[in-house]
Amino acid sequence: MTARAPGRTPQGTDGARNLNPERERAILSAVLSILAEVGYDRMSMDEVARRARASKATIYRRWTGKAEMVAAAMHGLVVEHQPLPDTGTLRGDLVAALSVFCRIYERKHSIVLGLLPAIRSDPALGRLLHRHMLESGRGEADELVERARTRGEPVGADRVAAAVEVTKALLWHRLLLTGEALDDEFVVRTVDEILLPLLRTD
């Protein structure tokens, strides 16, 4: 498995709007830094351009506005990671994958908190982030399950969507509501008590 190109939204965009990957990465990195520091409402395109050493014209050629750019940055934060290991079992693969995504969600925590007021006031931002949240992680989960099926493990491909949805709900519940750690104990318990029983067909 390879990480997707930085910042590409799940649906992709017109090729004419694509940037050099290094330039795009610099812009989206600046977006994430500013979001963590001042939040969405106080983030300006001028400051993004200054930190990324890019012109506003370059930014607007790639994204239509601030909401689309922030959604792309959030999406890139999820999909940019090292290939998930093949441990030889579905359980091992799920533990390894969930550990990776726990670290990613921890990085997103402060940014998401800063976005919550803006989501309520900016419907376009809310729709873009909702679409991103629904789709991120599904490709990786599909691959882990297909790998398990190839090994002969009794798992149902039709249960992947539910497993991804439940996992995200658990992660955000801890991050935004309870404040409990996304530690190894949480990972193992989630895999053994929720994900494996949900995915297995035996």
From TrEMBL:
It holds the Pfam family TetR_C_11. PROSITE patterns: HTH_TETR_1, HTH_TETR_2. Keywords: DNA-binding, Transcription, Transcription regulation. Residues 44-63 bind DNA. Gene3D superfamilies: Homeodomain-like (1.10.10.60), Tetracycline Repressor, domain 2 (1.10.357.10). InterPro entries: DNA-bd_HTH_TetR-type_CS (IPR023772), Homeodomain-like_sf (IPR009057), HTH-type_TetR-like_transc_reg (IPR050109), HTH_TetR (IPR001647), Tet_transcr_reg_TetR-rel_C_sf (IPR036271), TetR_C (IPR011075). Residues 21-81 form the HTH tetR-type domain. The keyword 4Fe-4S does not apply. Residues 1-20 are annotated as: Disordered. This is TetR/AcrR family transcriptional regulator. It comes from Planomonospora corallina.
